[in-house]
Write a structure and sequence with these properties.
Elements: H1 2-33, H2 35-48, H3 53-78, H4 92-105, H5 114-123, H6 132-143, H7 147-167, H8 172-188
Length: about 190
């Protein structure tokens, strides 16, 4: 048993020694550039002897964070962009149309998404947002529409029809919208 305790103590001493060397190396690199930090790193090394393992980890993370911050600042001063380029997110229309396509082409993998259905129901009369190619798929989708969504869609379509019947407009966009409304009413009524 005494040999095991001695071995453990030796391993701990070696780990501390290696950690001190790493911190010292980091400190030397940073100390060359900024003399103020020299005092802070020396103090940190002295305090590190008294720190627990968790406190040492926190200190190492803090030093890494400060180092990254300085690198970013130097990059900014040099005129190099540090921002990560995020991939372009798909718009609501792209997501909704992809949802509709998935419903028609991969019914086994398709999963209901209320937000996509709501978007489709709100914009189904707009030819720019839901092109004719997708509108035919949407009509098939509407056949399976159930519950409150079906009732509300019929009510809105009837309200739109009353509004457009009273206007007698000759606008081609309005006529296309009326035709879509008629198709939806015929399907759902």
């Amino acid at each position: 048993m005494p040999k095991m305790n001695v071995e453990k103590k030796e391993k701990k001493a070696e780990k501390r020694k290696k950690l001190k060397q790493r911190v010292a190396q980091k400190g030397e690199l940073e100390l060359e550039t900024e003399p103020k930090e020299k005092k802070q790193n020396l103090q940190a090394m002295k305090e590190e002897e008294e720190l627990t393992a968790e406190e040492r980890r926190k200190l190492e993370r803090k030093l890494q964070k400060e180092h990254k911050k300085k690198e970013k600042q130097l990059m900014r001063e040099a005129g190099i962009s540090t921002k990560k380029v995020e991939p372009k997110k798909q718009s609501g229309s792209e997501l909704a149309l992809a949802y509709l396509t998935s419903w028609s082409e991969n019914p086994e993998e398709w999963k209901f998404q209320k937000t996509r259905q709501t978007w489709l129901l709100l914009h189904m009369y707009d030819k720019e947002k839901v092109p004719d190619k997708y509108f035919t798929i949407l009509l098939d989708y509407l056949q399976g529409l159930q519950g409150g969504a079906r009732d509300i869609t019929v009510q809105k379509a009837e309200a739109f029809m009353k509004e457009f019947d009273g206007s007698n407009a000759e606008d081609p966009n309005l006529l296309e919208k009326c035709e879509r409304i008629r198709q939806v009413l015929q399907l759902l009524s």
